[in-house]
Specification:
The protein contains seven helices and 13 strands. The chain has helices at residues 32-43, 57-63, 100-105, 126-137, 221-237, 247-256, 280-292; strands at residues 4-8, 47-52, 74-78, 115-119, 122-123, 146-153, 164-172, 175-187, 193-196, 202-205, 210-218, 261-266, 272-273. The longest helix is centred in the C-terminal third of the chain and has 17 residues, at 221-237.
């Protein structure tokens, strides 16, 4: 069975200043998602599921989904702050979504096969889809707890417009042992990649240090773990308006208690995206070059 690609497309992109999902950045108005879907099809994925918000469904279907008809089966699910387990009610002051792992839970009724999950506003590159599709396709039927992630080289994920936050991966024998979220990663005066740790010390990251760009591979059992842990999360955080249920939080737990292993897949792909509005022109230029050099055809869909 071909794996499914699950695309997180419900966020607003506050730092960018608008709906990045619908921004035409390619030479013919292509969105970043268009490149991800094209690369996924070429790499062997068999279905795409999008999680979005209900309030922009009409625009999304018209501008995004219509172009994929005849190329790959597509389904849409919706994320809402009010979609909570029985016994929990969303506080009135809660505006912020419940996080990436809550968004992932929205796919539990439509995904029954190994799947990969990505952000809608990140360009991951063809090779990253190839290594993930190969890993998921090679799993034994009924596999549980054998997860994976694409580990990007931090040097291939930087922004020239400002600092970035990255999940820095700790590994052993090719498997993930933990993800440590590091904020304000940027270039220092020596053009080294650096961040300041909790003790105020500058720490240097080597170019090849693996980081998570939220490109994960899971088997369907991950949904049950997510449901169970979300209840625990809500018991502790229901009244914290900014608390979010992130994928790495649950992954770390499952790895640490021995429930799952996460293989770190290496890639030479270069990430880029529009973290800041100043990034936009650089992304436009990169897509123009990828078309000009034949990586992508003039008309993808």
């Amino acid at each position: 069975m071909k794996p499914t690609l699950f695309v997180l497309a419900a966020g607003m992109g506050s730092r960018y200043g608008g709906l990045k999902q619908l921004d035409g950045l390619g030479p013919h108005g292509e969105t970043i998602m268009d490149y991800s879907i094209y690369d996924a099809i070429k790499s062997g994925f068999g279905k795409v599921v999008f999680v979005i918000r209900k309030d922009f469904e009409a625009d999304f279907r018209e501008k995004i989904l219509s172009k994929y008809e005849g190329h790959i089966p597509v389904e849409v699910v919706f994320q809402s702050v009010n979609d909570l387990p029985e016994g929990f009610t969303c506080p009135a002051e809660r505006v912020k979504p419940w996080g990436t792992n809550h968004a992932l839970l929205m796919g539990k009724d439509v995904i029954n096969e190994p799947f990969a999950i990505i952000n809608s506003d990140d360009y991951y590159g063809r090779n990253s889809f190839e290594v993930m599709a190969r890993e998921l396709s090679n799993l034994e039927p009924g596999s549980c707890g054998k997860y994976s992630m694409v580990g990007f080289k931090v040097g291939n994920t930087m922004s020239e417009s400002g600092t970035v936050s990255r999940g820095v991966c700790e590994t052993r024998d090719g498997n993930l042992t933990g993800v440590v979220e590091r904020t304000s990663i940027g270039y220092n005066d020596k053009h080294e990649i650096a961040f300041t740790d909790e003790n105020g010390q500058e720490c240097i990251l080597g170019f090849d240090t693996p980081v998570s760009m939220n490109f994960w591979g899971f088997t369907p059992d991950y949904f049950k773990h997510s449901e169970d842990f979300f209840v625990e999360f809500l018991r502790e955080n229901i009244d914290k308006p900014k608390a979010e249920f992130f994928i790495p939080t649950l992954v770390n737990k499952l790895v640490n208690d021995g429930t799952a292993t996460v293989k770190v897949l290496t890639t030479e792909s270069k990430w880029f995206g529009v973290t800041y509005s100043a990034d936009r022109q650089g992304v436009v230029d990169k897509f123009a070059e990828l078309h000009a050099t034949g990586v992508y055809p003039e008309k993808m869909f």
